[in-house]
Write a structure and sequence with these properties.
The complex is a heterodimer.
Chain A lengths: L4 H34 L4 H26 L5 E4 L7 H20 L1 H19 L24 E3 L15 E6 L10 E5 L19 E5 L11 E3 L4 E3 L6 E3 L5 E4 L8 E2 L1 E3 L5 E3 L17
Antiparallel strand pairs in A: 2-3, 3-4, 4-5, 5-10, 6-7, 7-8, 8-9, 11-12
Helix pairs in contact in A: 1-2
Chain B lengths: L1 H5 L1 H13 L2 H8 L2 E2 L6 H21 L8 E3 L11 E3 H11 L4 H28 L8 H23 L4 H15 L5 H9 L8 H31 L3 E2 L8 E6 H26 L5 H4 L18 H9 L5 E3 L2 E3 L1 H28 L7 E2 L6 H20 L2 H8 L3 H36 L6 E4 L5 E4 L6
Parallel strand pairs in B: 4-8
Antiparallel strand pairs in B: 1-5, 2-3, 6-7, 9-10
Helix pairs in contact in B: 4-6, 4-11, 5-6, 6-7, 6-11, 7-10, 7-14, 8-9, 8-14, 13-14, 13-15, 15-17
Chain lengths: 289, 464
Amino acid sequence: MSGPPDDRAAFERRTVNQVAIAFTISALASVGLAVTYWQGGQNQVEGVLLAIALGGIGYGFVVVARRLLPQGPYTEERDVLPSTDEMVTDFETDLERGEGWLARRGFLLKMLGVAGGALGLAALFPIRSLGPNPGRSLFQTKWGKGSRVVDEQGDPVRVSTLDVGGVLTVFPEGSLEVEDSQVILIRVSDENLVTKKGREDWAPEGYVAYSKVCVHAGCPVGLYQQDVKELLCPCHQSTFDVLDAARPIFGPATRSLPQLPLMIDDDGFLRSQSDFDEPIGPGFWNRDR
Amino acid sequence: MSRRRRMVLPQVARWIDNRLGASRVARTTLNKVFPDHWSFMLGEIALYCFVILLLTGVYLTFFFVPGSKEVTYNGSYGPLQGVEMSQAFESTLRISFDVRAGLVMRQIHHWAALVFIAAIIAHLMRIFFTGAFRRPREINWMIGVSLLVLAIANGFTGYSLPDDLLSGTGLRIAYSVVLSVPVVGTWIAFLIFGGDFPGTEIITRFFVIHILIVPAAIAVLLVAHLAILVRQKHTQFAGKGRTNTNVVGARLWPTFTAKTLGLFFLVFAVLAALGGLAQINPVWIWGPFEPAAVSAGSQPDWYVGWLEGSLRLFPEWETRLFGFEIPNPFYSGVLIPSVTFGALYAWPFLEARMTKDYAEHHILDRPRDRPVRTGIGVAVLTFFVLLFLAGGNDVLAARFDISVNQITWALRIAVLTLPFLAFLLTYRLCRELQARERAEPPAVAVLERGREGGFTEVEPTTTR
């Protein structure tokens, strides 16, 4: 900022020219932007031209601010934030004017409280319109006694559909894409599979079916690693042992994936024996009730 | 006379003053002094990102349809022709392919959201490490933390709106986390989603939250944040002529105004360049949400990464009492973030109590001069960076060709140990820096700029 006047003048002239050029480039970019738009638009070109148009203006402002405008430093005194004792006392006196009146009308105040509280409670009720009572809806799915197993296109699944090692996402017939009824169907062998005591006839012909909704956070447990017979949830990497009733062997999941009891009907179609015998998906407070 | 007539601003000012008598206040405002330090720009960047989010967001609302009704796509993006999808996803595709300047607006909007939250967190770190939250600024600190919470909430709701496969997965996880809240979890989840997941309500509801409720709350808190800032004036680093009772820097008018307007345009320029050149969230590749589909390598936007990491790292614990259950995601998805933000809100008061320092502070600390605070800050940052990394453990595993299980275990251990190490290291480093300064006081050299623009050293003079 210092220096002889002629130097200063030259410096200012140069700076002004520089800023003028920046603004000109910005204006040209804006014209280009309009042309691009009328020509049908193109994302990259629009982004770059917009950046140049805005950047030119921004550059000009910054250069002016740094080189031409007064830099100071200026000093400003701070206000003392807390008020003086006198002001506070005066304020408190004024405040008591109302408080004193209220204190003498304690009964009115209480009734106002009752009215306000009642209004508040009443206002809570419309919230109830936002959603239904959870009731037992988390405890059941669309699977039932004898539901036919269909794939994502709605085609029924037969014993011959999968080779050993094959995997399919299936739904109960008539309930395609229903989130809580998605099931992962795996054919681990070609003979009856017992995943756990008490589930002797749940996996006929090596077809085993587990809820595809992860018991941790609800992602679809979609990755089947055939070599180790493990199901992996791609979201948080909970891993389940397919041969051991989908017991969790790694990750944050705390329990097994619910197994869907299957059977094969006389025409060779896969059907469920019943719904799951426990709630599917992530845990919740009254899950075991 | 001709000179007077060219001065438009004073005439306008006079017109307004005749009606409002605002000259005195306005003059004080014009002369308001802003300390000059690069780190003070971080909050400004956040502010300008918010402005840009409003501008681009308004444009997007003209074309976005927040509905779950299934429609068949027949727009100009070939691979999805004839695919069934929600109106929300369909209109997002329309914005991206058929609305002129739609894609660039959408991408600037998304980038601005990412930078918005990054700038807020950088700003928060600046405030934390320099002790700018101390009395009298505790209220503004809490408003700032609230702004961060709201910004993250709006980021998540916005991310969910296109109803693509990735955002649907995010919603499913959010639903499960809400479900995990003891006693009332199922009720809250059903009230938010209008029933069982996914339902047909959530996009419409998130839209209202995303474009009205949260932005309005942010705007109100921003005004309060800035009003308190003006009332209390800026903090400043120690330096010549700077005391606890003054502020030294450039004035609002005209220097700071020009500088900050310049910053606004430059921030916008960078975001425009990103929006044009750096593809973000190409939802047409993910495809519409289907409940049974998901892919590996699903990552949320960066600011949710630490929550994702928390869900991934947390061991397989749950609590059962009297036949009731507190599921695993409650700890990783509800408790950890609650403690995080609770601690942030409480910090100014905790520190005041620990240090017994209740005095007013307007001069900033250098991080090295407060080794304990700096150490705690670095430890907490380490913790969250590790959680963030854990949010991408499958990506790390694929990239470095190691098993996810090993990475998860390594991070589980690291997240419990490295923060302590980070504290000790930082503490040591601060002490070291202090000791070095005491040993050799900073050499003072006075430079003078000559006519040619070069610098020469001159003898320091004592006064000035």
